Fold:
Amino acid sequence: MKATYKKYNLIFKQASGTSRGVLTNKETWFIILEENGKKGIGECGLFRGLSIDDVPEYEKKLKWVVANIHLRLEILLEELIHFPSIQFGLEQAFLSLNSEDSFSLFPSNFINNNASIPINGLIWMGDEDFMLKQIEEKLQEGFNCIKLKIGAIDFSKELALIESIRKKFTPKEIELRVDANGAFTVEEALTKLKQLAQFKIHSIEQPIKQGNILDMKVLCNSTPLPIALDEELIGVFTIAEKEKLLQTIKPQYIILKPSLVGGFKGSLEWITLAEKYNVGWWVTSALESNIGLNAIAQWTYTLSNKMPQGLGTGALFTNNFTSPLYVENGKLFHSKFVGWQNNLIEDLCI
Structure:
């Protein structure tokens, strides 16, 4: 078996704001396997400034993978425990290599019979007019679950935006989620959660910065609206560590980004523990290209989670890859009539 890797720089159609700053491009990496004339591909969705494996020796580890690809996948994944995005890329690459179609990793009604996955419409941070425009577009596009990134503009203006939605749509008509990306201070968090709660918010992701375990425990115990852990899961590697975190904080939800938490294997460990402790969960992509998004979406469908998932990011980039994935009426579909662009894997190898 032969293995190679390739760096690829995704370019945003427009700058996208989070509480960590404005994103204009997203670096990603691909692992390509070849055996007996068949190729497989997987995306290592490194997220600079967020991934635990955003380290200087990242490419060195990819070189190690290429040199040791003869080892069993289980051994490789164990060696890569501190490189979750590479774990995920490898899982995809082996599934791709061993599938009849390089991009059909999990045969199901999603790829065979036009079944769909409900997803949330994502509202990026920006000034008031920009966010309001996005909200109006998502509502017109038929989304009944909207997720707003908050923490970038004045909080009172963000509350006013949320209030404007609630004046037009009940919680049954539009589910509202917010994502603070750790923007609130420990001291102000509970007060802000109480202000948000008056608008019947479904949940808030990561209200305070990750690592404040005991403060997050107190917050989850006293919160007026459900809290979802997101960044808090990053860098928690073993099953014992994962169980301890859930037992300590007792969150209402956890959010799984396979690129950040060890791929399918790492995510399934979290899901098993979440269900043991009656913690809700859903899956979210982490700004992967359509190659990684395709893998996440196909896998997510097999989990039979009926909640809206966070998978609608494929249209953000100017240089994404043509794929069968498309969004319609707030749902993600896999078209039987649109294929992947010709010679995609071969062109990436050049």
User: Anything to note?
Assistant: DSSP finds 13 helices and 13 strands in the chain.
